[in-house]
Design brief:
seven-stranded mixed sheet; 391 residues; Metallo-beta-lactamase, Chain A; nine-stranded mixed sheet; 22% strand
Length: 391
């Protein structure tokens, strides 16, 4: 009995040690091999699914059946990091194949035909459309999306209109890519889209804990992103580079690879290793490559559980958002955000009309899935006004 009491006491002591997290149900991130482009699928411990980017159009034949294989039912959220073809090319067909409940992109203007066609699909298929706008009632916080079982996805950038979109960079579309941090227990994943050095420099001035176990390397391992100061803040244990074999851009570049090596990150490349699967149990992340790897690689989580923002987020100059999409501030049905013209406008999922927020027809509706618009102009772009409330 004395021995049993000793073992129990030791167990309680170990469980109470600071920084030690209990083993949690698995969270999985699939970094797909889509050639010269990006596509990653998050499957949370509770089964919530988030697809970040959809690769180039030529990846359709591989991406659509792979997502179908992994996702049962509509995707809970699709995030387009920025409207370039190598990130949006496959999203339309994926959305048409499996469906999507919510869609988010930066809301940064881009006039390409491919982006317009994607928005047409989104307008017909998505139950809710969002841009990563901070909550007006607490603009000093970051937009955080709960994925169940303690997994959270926090949007670090952009934050328009609290912070103006970055401008006069090498590529303003790239510089305003959605940057998101996925946290789970003592582990974290950082997704950078095609962020520019200006993005990294701007973010480093914010009170943010960037520490991440796995880094989805920005801009396919281009020479300008993954700057040394930013990598020093992220401290990645592993880095995944999504790029195509023999691509015309020379990605990943020797400069980026050297900087990643200098911080000790284990490097995975989809051009050489194919799809990379990363599974977190809250304490460690196990990375398994489709090819070219004899055994899985296990890296330790080093993230302190808690809020990603380490203090109030200071805001810059307030400017009107440049988005082409209706904006929402969170990822769950809510009471809505006051629109810029003083009214709220809402459409129900599957409906071709929009209403005023106080319309009696909304109160009688059976479905609670709805899209809320920042103003009447945004609503009228996608729906016609309802006759019962004549918004």
């Amino acid at each position: 009995m004395a021995f049993v009491r000793f073992v129990l006491a030791l167990f309680v002591l170990l469980a109470a040690l600071p920084g030690r997290a209990a083993t949690l149900p698995p969270l999985t991130v699939y970094f797909f091999d889509v050639g010269q482009g990006d596509a990653a699928l998050i499957v949370s411990p509770s089964g919530k699914t988030v697809l970040i980017d959809g690769g180039p159009p030529e990846a359709d034949d591989r991406l659509v059946p792979r997502v179908r294989q992994l996702v049962k039912g509509p995707l809970d959220l699709v995030i387009l990091s920025h409207p370039h073809l190598d990130h949006l090319g496959g999203l339309g067909k994926v959305i048409q194949a499996v469906g999507v409940r919510r869609y988010m992109d930066p809301g940064f203007d881009h006039g390409s035909e491919a982006y317009r066609k994607l928005l047409d699909v989104v307008g017909k298929k998505a139950g809710q459309v969002m841009t990563p706008t901070p909550n007006p009632s607490s603009p000093e916080t970051l937009l955080t999306i709960g994925l169940g079982e303690g997994a959270t996805l926090t949007i670090l950038w952009p934050r328009s209109p609290q912070d103006a979109f970055l401008s006069n960079t090498r590529s303003d579309v790239n510089a305003n890519s959605i940057v998101a941090k996925l946290t789970y227990g003592n582990t974290a994943f950082l997704f950078l889209g095609d962020s520019e050095p200006e993005t990294e420099s701007f973010l480093l001035r914010k009170p943010i804990d960037f520490t991440s176990t796995v880094l989805k390397v920005g801009h396919h391992g281009g020479r300008y992103s993954s700057t040394a100061p930013f990598l020093a803040a992220v401290k990645p244990q592993a880095a995944v580079i999504s790029c195509g074999a023999g691509n015309d851009y020379g990605h990943p570049t020797d400069e980026a690879l050297e900087r990643l090596g200098n911080v000790g990150a284990r490097i995975f490349r989809t051009d050489r290793q194919g799809e990379v699967r990363a599974v977190s149990n809250g304490n460690t992340v196990t990375l398994t490559a489709e090819k070219g790897q004899r055994a899985p690689v296990v890296v330790n989580g080093q993230v302190r559980p808690g809020l990603v923002a380490t203090g109030p987020m200071p805001s810059g100059r307030v400017v009107p958002a440049k988005g082409t999409l209706p904006a929402r501030v969170d990822a769950t049905p809510a009471s809505g955000t006051l629109s810029s013209d003083g009214e709220r406008y809402v459409s129900l999922k599957g409906s071709q009309v929009f209403h005023r927020d106080d319309c009696a027809a909304l109160k009688r509706a059976k479905t609670q899935e709805r899209t809320q618009y920042m103003n009447r102009t945004a609503a009228a772009r996608e729906r016609r006004p309802a006759k019962d409330c004549n918004p």
